[in-house]
Amino acid sequence: MPQQRTRLLSSIFGACAAAALVAGCGGQPEPAEEGTPEEHPPGHEQQTPGQEQQTAEAARTAATYGTFAPDAKAVTYDPALVPDGAKVDLASERTNGTTKITVELEGLVPNRAYGAHVHTKPCGPTGEDAGPHFQEKADPVKPSVDPAYANPQNEVWLDFHTDAEGNATATTEGTWSFDTRQDANSFVIHESHTHTEPGKAGTAGGRLSCLNAKF
Fold first, then answer.
1. Structure pTM?
2. Keyword set for this entry (predicted)?
């Protein structure tokens, strides 16, 4: 009788061991094979070690110059030098405290020098409606013609020279605080390159056109 009980217990243990091999006794999941990549749920991609994320804020304004209207984006005041139908595309991108501004123009007078600046006010029926140049540090004397204030670091200058097709591109970079101020509202093209000498610094002749823009 004891021998029969011993043989019965041995049979039960043997059956359990066999079942464990087939079904994984205890219900524990099988470990992943070595070298198999771990899956990540969508939207949780792994970041490469040392990879840094840079935040950038960008603004872009594209328009076609024409006669003034209350809802116009781009206005020409001198169609002989900034013709109706000329195109402007202005992009402003701020990254890590630095702003890069690029303007592309098409359809202007070929092989000609122009001045260009960011101004404080929106465009109006006349070029003067755009107000003075944007200045990071405002000159207490108006009009501002002192090189200490009227310079391409304190103001935003985008002078350019057109090619044989009347097209041009200009780019500038600076640390202007557009993100905390509301006095940069337009891009104005002038009739000549910008002066730098005392008494004339910042001046560039008549205002030929205006673009309402965001920076």
1. 0.75
2. Signal
CA-to-CA dists, residue 118 to 17, 138, 155, angstroms: 83, 14, 8
Q: How many CB atoms lie within 10 A of CB 76?
A: 23
**CB contact at 8 A, 56 and 189:** no
Domain count, the chain: 1
Residue 75 located in a structural domain: yes
Distance CA 160, CA 167 (A): 10
What is the domain-level CATH number for residue 100? 2.60.40.200
Helix intervals (H) in the chain: 2-23
Look at strands 168-174 and 98-106 and give their pairing. antiparallel
pLDDT digit string, tens, across residues 122-148: 999 999 999 999 999 999 999 999 999
Q: For residue 46, is it within any domain?
A: no
Please state the rounded mean pLDDT for residues 155-178.
Answer: 97
